[in-house]
Amino acid sequence: MAKRDYYEVLGLNKSASTDEIKKSYRKLAMKYHPDKNPDDKEAEVKFKEATEAYTVLADKEKRQRYDQFGFAGVEGMGAGGNPFEGFGGTGFDDIFSGFEDIFSSFFGGGFSSGGRRSGGRRTQRGNDLLYTLEISLEDAAFGKTVDITYDRQEKCETCSGSGSKSGSGKKLCPECGGSGQIRRSQGFFSIATTCPRCHGAGEIIENPCNSCGGSGVKRKKVTKNVKIPAGIDNGKRIIIRGEGDAGESGAPSGDLHIKFRVQPHEYFIREDNNLMIEIPISYTQAVLGDDISVRSLDNKTIKLKIPSACENGKILRIKNAGVPYLENSNRRGDLYIKVTIEVPANLSREEKKILEEFRKAHGENKNPTPKKMQHFQQEYYF
After folding, report:
1. pTM, two decimal places
2. Confidence (pLDDT) at 338
């Protein structure tokens, strides 16, 4: 599914104020929040979509880049040209902290930013990751299985992800008493904020693991087998669940987003599921017609009939020789062939003599009268 415009996601126009953006996001977040819609994948997707839109539009600099350049302005490559970059660590906790009192009252004392909360204690879900995969037009059209290598946070092997030295374990946070929240009264109101000492976990580690420093995770290079779906187009994504960063202290892992960048082809041009190619023919083939062979994108030989008196730039169509449809690989688009006539150069004396005889026999007019312009429509552009 193609990414939707961030303003469309929040139901706003481009002139919306910051307060309107915040109000719209709050309404969508409360409607689709995972705690209110357990095991509802569609609600989870809409919740993440709304949150991603908010992280961009609520930030003045990001919003300016998005308004000017679209998604490309806010999805930069990682440092050093690395195609892998963090995707989920976009300040979700900062967003939720602004609505913590609202979520707390609505869901009965707890909310989760893609992680989970048990007894008021929040566990931080791992970051989603984005990997940009460059592929050929052939692989995009017909699919392929490839290996990708990227860095991600993995569960620490030394402490098995607990974050503490062997046997030392954790204890309740003395600051919040294990609730993960600090409540402060202001007049008639009671406001809950995340505990600054345990960061909402409700527990602290007395003796952190020397290997991971208490986080329970370590960065590691991993190789993943990825199947490229037949018919995928440039800029599209697939999501591999649970293959992002591991969560801290045993929390769930994030997801891996694969974004496809299709390289230009030497001969073929893709337009949706159709393919276009330009084929040169000789002058005699154009005049007399001919049967020629054309190689398709999947390297099959296709017989093509050139009609007699074929005009330069004529478009011929071969059905079902294009790109398979993503949702149904048994269906394919068409192949459109633009015919261009090559005028012979460096003719021999004998060839020129033959053409002169042809011109005399054909009675060519050296002073032609212009024809009245007829309406025409060029269906495809090359």
Report:
1. 0.57
2. 93
